[in-house]
Amino acid sequence: MIRKTLLGLVVAMTPILSAAHSKSEATTPGDGATVSEVPELSMRFDDPMRIISVTLTAGGADIAIERETGMEPAEEFRAMPSEALAPGDYLFEWRGMASDGHPMQGSFSFTVTE
Ligand SMILES: [Cu+2]
Predict the structure, then answer these.
(1) CB 112 within 8 A of CB 88
(2) What is the pTM of this model?
(3) What pLDDT does residue 25 have?
(4) Span from the CA of 53 to the centroid of ligand 1 (angstroms)
(5) In angstroms, what is the span from residue 36 Cα to ligand 1's centroid?
(6) CATH no. of 21-112
(7) Does pLDDT of 84 surpass 60?
(8) How far is CA 87 from the centre of its chain?
(9) Dist. CA 20 → ligand 1 center (Å)
(10) According to DSSP H, which parts of the chain are helical?
(11) What residue ranges do the domains of the chain occupy?
């Protein structure tokens, strides 16, 4: 009885699992957030992601960040601003390789206030 129920669950979930590949679930700061300081930048994925490149820009200008997470696939990616971020609007963009081999990219933005 239990076995049959579990099997039914697996069958029901299979199309969702096979269609999905790792994506960004949450970021720090959150997408669209207004914050007063940014001690670190992070992204969490639902499946390990190899992050190939990241950029942080403000008004098109590159802002220096230091990767904490290396090139190995990880469910959490972390980087730190090299210097405290000045007030302004920031765009974080990334490119990566999902665990199923698909190239992925994404971005999130946030605002730093005084
Ligand atoms: Cu995929």
Answers:
(1) yes
(2) 0.80
(3) 82
(4) 18
(5) 35
(6) 2.60.40.1220
(7) yes
(8) 23
(9) 6
(10) 2-19
(11) 21-112
